Amino acid sequence: MRLDVRIVAATRHDLDQAVATGRFREDLYYHLNVVPIQIPRLAEHCEDVPELLNYYGHRSSSSQP
Description:
Layout: H1 15-20, H2 26-32, H3 49-62
């Protein structure tokens, strides 16, 4: 059976450091770290919170149950 699988993984931990200290498997890190995307923490962008709340509030109120 042939499969085409995509995995998206996220963490708030420093995986480079975890691999270096042996707390995270190096082989798994190699497979997961194909296209790293760095996104700043929301705490660093507090001005975005009202806009995000507005967006998700409208989105959830207009969805069908």
